[in-house]
Amino acid sequence: MENRSEKIHAVEFRGITKRFGSNIANDSIDLYLNKGVIMSLLGENGSGKTTLMNMLAGIYFPDEGEILIDGKPVSIASPKDAFDNGIGMIHQHFKLVDIFNATENIVLGLEDRFDLKEAEAKVREICDRYGFEIDLSKKIYEMSVSEKQTVEIVKVLYRGADILILDEPTAVLTPQEIEKLFFVLRAMRQDGKAIILITHKLGEVMAVSDVVAVLRKGRHIATVRTAETDEQKLTEMMVGRAVKLNIARTESVNITPRLTIKDLTCRDKEGFVKLDKASFVANGGEILGVAGIAGSGQKELLEAIAGLRRIDSGSILYTPEGKEPTELVGKTPMEIKEAGVALAFVPEDRLGMGLVGGMGMTGNMMLRSWNKGKGIFIDRKEPEKLAEKVYDFLEVVTPSIDYPVRKLSGGNVQKVLVGREIVSEPSVLMSAYAVRGLDINTSYVIYNLMAEQKSKGVAVIFVGEDLDVLIELCDRIMVLCGGRVSGIVDARKTCKEELGLLMTKAGGRGAAIK
Amino acid sequence: MNKHTPFIRLAKREDIARHSVWMIRAASFVAAILLGCLIFLSVDANPLTAYKTIISGALGNKNGIRQVVKYAIPLLGTALALAPCFKMRYWNIGAEGQITMGALGASFFALNYAAAMPAPALLIVMCLASILGGMLWSVIPALFKARWGTNETLFTLMMNYIAIGIVGWLQGGPWEGKPGSQIIPLFDPKAVLPRLFGVHIGWIIVLLLTVVIYVYMNYTKQGYEIAVLGESENTAVYAGMNVAAVTVRTAALSGGLCGLVGFMLASGTNQTMYSDIAGGAGFTAITVCWLAQLNPFAMIGISLLLAVLCKGASTIQTALSIPASISDMLTGIILLCMLGCEFFINYKMIFRSHAEKEAE
User: Fold this and answer.
1) How far apart are CA B241 and CA B235, in angstroms?
2) Beta A87-90 vs A163-167: how paired, if at all?
3) ipTM over the 0.85 cut-off
4) Strands (E), chain B
5) CA B285 to CA B213: how far, in whole Å?
6) Nearest residue of chain B to residue A306 (CA atoms)
7) Contact present, A261 and A461 (Cβ < 8 Å)
8) Domain extents for chain A?
């Protein structure tokens, strides 16, 4: 302790503890970071990464312990205090005003008088110094996600931040955009900034950071130099035990067309085209991956197939094993479900669609079967059996199958959601973001479940965010760009770069934004 | 470091032991009683005597108990009617008007067809007419909500005033008894609900209804639809439920039951019809519903408690000549404390000094 205090660190946490009710989110964390260093803060969902950073950014206040900036104890009780201490955080959800341009957003909220011309010159100087490429007069609503992120980073720098926190910055970017981001991060490191990257993607940790701090269950496990570690070691620190990181991809046998989609077009409530003449075939015995920047039509595609969205034109031909093809367009969600098409969509808030937070596992199993059987009473026996099955099969951690799923951890919530669709023995299984926010182990359980379904002859459609996983898991990958199918590639022969190019294929991009 | 800690912080409780929930509820009830003492003292009444009078007036003799039950019937019935709506997060605050329209439907037959049919048939027709009347009044806002997404809270509230206005007009016009009296005549004895143990049989109807609503909400497909829709409309659509149909159906059920309460009020309690026949039961029942946390059996206890207060209030007014508004204040304080204590059940307060101690 004595020795460490002698050197002055850019940021130092000393014995930081934060509790939420009986849950300890951060447990006496000691951690420090120097200037000119990029640190990855690595940990699984719920390990306390974001909580810790929110205390640095003034969003939460620690229950115990203290934070030192440049060796001096500080009290950060509000985001303003954080700015005064040179701390800036770039959140996952951008906080920008759509109808203002980049410069206006950057100066917005500053209390001192300013001259927009002068400000623009200063912003330009920052951009040149770190190599940001941005059109300052462009309005936010015309910008891509990556450009918006750039505005957020420049905004923080403009306010004189020396310590930057980026919360999962790569989640919404293409591989090419990630490279650009890393380039500016390195330039900022050169300039003596201290940078903290909250992430759970190991590849990126290895690529960009100098040191890695690993959190597990609210505790600081270790801080190691990136050069002296590898992905396997980091995973073990993160999970707490050895894990095998591979997906058993079998060769597809008995491939038969299951869903034949032709010229499918959908609009949203405002009349914008969300899905533009999408055509493809999903085969039984195969996993079809769907890649694309967030909001490229993935959600709309799955909802259209499940009957949850109005279809403007096009056809969805469904051919169950050994049966005649039927048209799904015009059928009700219930009829489509009964026919064997299952959808497991994990929305951002996890509970918004597909689960009822206040009910237990049994109640949630009923969502599939509530209408079955005669009479006015609901059958609880079957759903109860189903709940037991999912509980055993996926090792759901819950006090009882009637315990409200809202109170379960994110991973367990998703097990309930995905598990319910799988035990219904569908013939088409659609899943979107099935591993969103899951720990590594559970993610692999889910990947292997998908592979298992495929070997049973199910047509699996897997919408994913992690390109590495898509390449490893799927047989074919379809890329969506601005609501159009920009390409379908063989997963065994493609690479991230090829997918990245398809994701931003010229011409489709504009439609993706509006 | 701690100088910037706020003096009081609120933290959401994760889980709370059942016995501490009841401790908090009991404490808030005691607090309400103590606050009530201050009110009695302010009008120079002995609080002890006042409370004693309330209890003995309401529960001390047969007549008092009958009165209490009579007050409790519409409260319980309406709270039961509202429960499915609230479970669905459809804010029906139009019970007052739905009760009035129900009573109106029943009165129409009581006044015009009493001679035409035997008593049981007349009562059944009145009962059906009241259900239809209440239903009509609740389905109109529900249809607008389902079709155009209008706000049901304002819509149902406004419907109340229309219903009361209609009865006001009938009272002074087409249905007026003695010219100039502004009063609708008493019902024919055939149109009056029979009594059992000195109170009209509405009490049996609402007790049966309690069981029915409990079963409906917990064990039927429709109850399940209501629960899912209340939690998430997206999930309901995902599960293949017809959101508009469920909304209208549940509103119709709720309105129909409110109408039934109107029938009991007109035929059982008052044996006539007037514009204020609901007498605020439609609003007080909202409180009953929430205090019971939508549990039908808890509603029995809470509506009885409110009825005791209501009856006790009229007793202290006559026995101790304390103005009735004073006991209304007492009822208000008790309700406020009981609803307010839910806040302390959900949140705990951390004081600065306490937080420091915790840190050490």
Assistant:
1) 9
2) parallel
3) no
4) 8-12, 195-196, 199-200, 347-351
5) 15
6) B238
7) no
8) 2-239, 250-340+427-438+449-514, 357-425
- Which residue is listed with tokens 């701090």? A213
- Chain A neighbors of B249, CB-CB under 8 A: none
> What was the pLDDT predicted at B14?
63
Indicate yes or no: CB of B221 within 8 angstroms of CB of A377: yes
CB-based contact B82:B333 (threshold 8 Å): no
Written as six digits, the tokens of A304 are 């259209």
Measured in angstroms, the CA of B227 and the nearest CA of chain A are apart by 9
Query: Per-residue pLDDT tens for A448-490?
Result: 888 888 888 889 999 988 888 888 889 999 999 888 898 899 9
**Interface-testing mutation among B20, B231, B360, with chain A (most A C-beta atoms within 10 A):** B231
Q: Residue A509 — very low, low, confident or very high, per pLDDT cuts 50/70/90?
A: very low
What is the C-alpha to C-alpha distance for residues B351 and A506, in angstroms, rounded to an integer?
Answer: 58
Contact A376 B355 (CB under 8 A): no
Cβ atoms of A469 and A447 closer than 8 Å: yes
pLDDT of residue A4: 46
A333 interfaces chain B, CB cutoff of 8 Å:
yes
pLDDT of residue A504: 80
Q: Does position B4 have pLDDT exceeding 70, yes or no? A: no
Residues B265 and B74 sit within 8 Å (Cβ to Cβ) = yes
Domain spans in chain B, listed from the N-terminal domain onward:
74-299
Nearest-by-Cβ selection for B235 from A73, A353, A376: A353
> Residue A79: its chain B contacts at CB < 8 A?
none
Averaged confidence pLDDT in chain A: 84
- pTM assigned to the model: 0.75
> Looking at chain A, which residue has its C-alpha nearest residue B229?
A356
Residue B248's pLDDT is what?
A: 95
**CA neighbours closer than 13 Å in the CB half-sphere of residue A20:** 8
Specify the amino acid at residue B329: M
Chain B residue closest in CA terms to A302 = B238
Q: How distant, in Å, are the alpha carbons of A365, B152, B182, B248 from that of B234?
A: 16, 19, 51, 18
Between B13, B14, B239, which is nearest A370 by CB?
A: B239
CB B96 within 8 A of CB B253: no
Q: Which residue has the higher pLDDT, A306 or A505?
A: A306
Chain A nearest C-alpha distance from B228 (Å) = 6
Q: Is A80 on the interface with B (CB under 8 A)?
A: no
- CA dihedral angle for residue A132, residue A133, residue A135, residue A136, rounded to 10 degrees: 10
Residue in A with minimal Cα distance to B222: A376
Identify the residue whose tokens are 């410069």: A103
Model confidence at B78, pLDDT cuts 50, 70, 90, reads: very high
Burial annotation B318-331 (CB, 10 A radius, 16+ → b, else e): eebebeeebbebbb
In A29-84, where does DSSP find H-type helix? 49-56, 79-84
| Interface probe, candidates B16, B88, B225, B238, chain A, greatest A C-beta count within 10 A | B238
Measured between alpha carbons, how far is A243 from A256 in angstroms, rounded to an integer?
A: 35
**CA atoms of A473 and B32, how far apart (whole Å):** 64
DSSP A390: H
Please spell the DSSP secondary structure of A314-326, one letter per residue. EEEEE--TTS--E
* Residues of chain A neighbouring B4 (CB-CB closer than 8 A): 61, 75, 77
CATH number for the segment(s) A2-239: 3.40.50.300
- Give the least confident one: A17-26, A210-219, A277-286, B206-215: A17-26
Alpha helices in A39-174 (DSSP H): 49-56, 79-84, 102-107, 116-130, 145-158
At the fourth CATH level, the homologous superfamily of domain A250-340+427-438+449-514 is: P-loop containing nucleotide triphosphate hydrolases (3.40.50.300)
Residue B17 has pLDDT above 80, yes or no: no
